[in-house]
Amino acid sequence: MAPNNVTECICHDRAFVEIKQYANQNNVSSLDELQNQNYCSNNCGLCAPYVEIVLETGQTEFVPGEPFRKKR
Predict the structure, then answer these.
(1) What b/e string do you get for 2-13 counting C-beta neighbours within 10 Å, with b at 16 or more?
(2) Within 13 Å, how many C-alpha atoms sit on residue 64's CB side?
(3) Contact at 8 Å (CB) between 6 and 40?
(4) To 10 degrees, what angle do helices 48-57 and 16-25 make?
(5) pLDDT by residue (tens digit) across 24-40?
(6) How far is CA 60 from CA 19, 45, in A?
(7) How many CA atoms lie within 13 A of 70 on its CB side?
(8) Where are the alpha helices (DSSP H) in 2-60?
(9) Which pLDDT value is given to residue 71?
(10) Each residue's pLDDT tens digit, 34-67
(11) Rounded to whole angstroms, what are the CA distances from 55 to 3, 48?
(12) Alpha-carbon torsion, ordered 63, 68, 69, 72, to 10 deg
């Protein structure tokens, strides 16, 4: 892991790897479901674009700002 990569939801102290495992084990497929279960992405929300990619692709480590560059 590169030292400055984004790898977790800071507010909930949950690594994206952990979020991916939880989603797979609990048949969670959307950010809304995770937020409604108070699992991640419902405090500051900065990790939300990253978590969406985790759910879509399984990627769990990101260069800062990567999700925003992909949407252009």
Answers:
(1) eeeebebbeebe
(2) 4
(3) no
(4) 50
(5) 999 999 999 999 999 99
(6) 9, 17
(7) 10
(8) 16-25, 31-36, 48-57
(9) 59
(10) 999 999 999 999 999 999 999 999 999 999 988 8
(11) 23, 11
(12) 170
